[in-house]
Amino acid sequence: MPQPPSSLAQILTAIALLTGLLVLSACDQTPERLAEIASKESSPQAAIQLEFSELGVATMTEDKMQIRASEQVSVNGQTQTIGYHSLFATGDENNGERFGQSKDVSGQPILFEDGSPYLCSGTNDGVGSGLDHISILQKNDTLYMVSQYECVIGSMYVNELLQDENGQLSVKPDSLQFIDQSSDFGGYVHCAGQTTPWQSHLSSEEYEPDARYIETHFDDVIQRSGNRYYDEMARYWQNDLSRANPYFYGWIPEVQIDAQGEPEYRKHFSMGRFSHELAYVMPDQKTVYLSDDGTNVGLYLFVADRAQDLSSGTLYAARWQQTSDQGLGQAKLHWISLGHANNAEIRKVVANKPKFSDLFESLDPNSAGLCTSGFRSINTTHGHECLKLKDINGDQHIDTQDEIIASRLETRRFAAMLGATTEFRKEEGISFNAQNNRLYVGMSEIARGMENHSKNGEANPQYDSGGPNHIRLPYNPCGGVYTLDVAANAQMNSDYIASNMSELIAGKPDKNNQCMADGLANPDNLSFLDDSNILMIGEDSSLHENNFVWAYDIHKQNLTRIFSAPLDAETTSPFWHQNINGFGYLTIVTQHPLEEQAVELAKKQSQAGYIGPFQFFKKGSEPASSGH
Hints:
This protein is mostly beta strands. It is built from 10 helices and 41 strands.
C-alpha cells in the first residue's frame, strides 16, 4: 500500500505501539492450501443430507406475482412434505398493535400527512425497504418472535408463537408488543439479524448517517440536512431534529427476553459504528463477524471479553492481501486491532452529541490528489479524504482514549487510516459451517472499489484514488459467496479467526450483464444448516426477474432453486432454526412485494413466513434417517 510521509508514518507507528492497535496476521496459507478449498467443502460427511425438489422459473405472469416454494425435501433419503407458510404481513393487527407501525420517541404512532398509519412496508410513502428479519427465540418454555424493520425509523416488535402437534407455527392472538428503543436514541434501518446461541435477537443498523456531511449541511432554521435518511428521523423526534445526532445510529442492537417475558433492549456501542448488514456470532459465543453494506466498505471482527456478553471487547478490521485475481479472487487476511472498548464509555461520548470536527481535522486532496503532510489519505464510502485525528476528549494529548473513541464512532474511516481494506462492495450475509470450520460471506457484486481503478468494467479512478487499492478483481455484476478458513489465534483470544478469503460460488453474468437464470444474482443473506450439506443463499437483485432463495450443496457444489419471491420483492434474511421442539424451519421475509405493480396496497405488504416444518431429528436428537 502507498506509505504516508515519513513523519506521519513514524507518528502512526508510535501510536500503534503505544495503544496496541497492531496488525495481527492469521496463519499464513500457501497457494496450494488455497487451491484445496473446493475439495475441503466435500468432507467430512454431514449427518443431515438434504435434497430439495427443484422450483422452476416462473413463466406466467400470475406465477411471477406469487410466493412459490419447494413442496418436498429428502432428509437422509426420507421424503418429507414441506411448503411455504405465512406468519404475518405488515399492517396485520394483534393486541391493539399493527405489525410494522412506526412510532415516535414517546411511543406514539406516527401518521402520514393523510392521517394513515406510517407502516414500514417498503411500498408506501415511508422511507425504507420494509420488514427485514424475524428471530424465533426459545425462552421461558415459550416461543417468541422478534421482527425488525428496515425503514429509517427502525421499529421492532415481539410476539408469541403457537406450535401445533404437526409443527405448524402461528402468531398467538393478543401477544404483539412494540419494543421501545428510546433508551438508546431509537432504532434506525434495521437490516439482517441473528438468533444468538443464547436465544437473544441480534439486530443491525445499516447506512449510518455521514456525520461530516450532516455537520456541514444541516440548516438550523428548517431543521434539515439534505440527507434523506437522516432527515426522516425528524418524525421520530417529533419534528425536532436538533434532538438527534448522526452518531446515534449505525450500531448493533440486541433484544433479550427476561424471565417475565418482557423485551430488554440495548445497543452495543463497543462493536463499532458503520453500515451494519449483519452481526454473526460464532460457536464460542464471543467472536462476532460484522459485515458492512455499501461501496468501499470494510470487514470486521469483534472478540468479546466474555461469552454471551457483547458489552465489551476488542474490535478488528480486515486487510486483504491479494494472492489471485481469478474469479472472485483469493487473499490472505490480516487483522488490524482497533482497540478495546465497552458500551458505557462509548455511549457516554455519543450522548454528548459530538460533531465530526470534534474527532478529525479534514482537508480535501490537492489538485494532484495528494494529502497535506500529517494527514492520512483514505478512500471509503465517503470518497477520498484527508484526515488527522484530534484531541477528542480534551486532555491535551492525542492518545489511546482518542483513538478508541474514533475507532467506535467512525470505525470505517479510522480502520482505513490504520491500513485496513475499505474496498469491498455491498458485503452482505454471513454464516458458518462448524463441520468444516468454514465461514461464508456474501458479496452482492464485485464492483467499484473491488475492481482496479474501474467502475462496472470501465476505467474510473474514483474508488481507488487516495487508497491502497488492495483489491483488484474483474467486474462481476452478479456477485458471489466467499469461503474463509477459520482457526484458533491465541493472540486474538479466539478459536475462530479467518485467515484467507476465496471463491465458493460466483454468479454468472450474460452478455447483457444480466445474471443467468440457473445461477446467483446479487447474493444477500446466507444461512448454513448445522451438520448438513446445505447453505441457503438469498437474493436481492434486479438482474433476475424474480428473486430466489437457493440451496447450495457444498458437497455436490450445485444449486437448487427452492423459493421464488413475487415481482419487485427481495428475499431477506433466510435463517435456519434447526430444532424447535423437534421441528426445523427456514424463516424467510419477502420485502416490498409487487412495489411497481398495479395491484391493491394489501398485496404489497412485506410478509414473514417459513418453509417447513422439517424433521431433522428423531427422539433422542439423532438425525433422521431412512433406517439404513
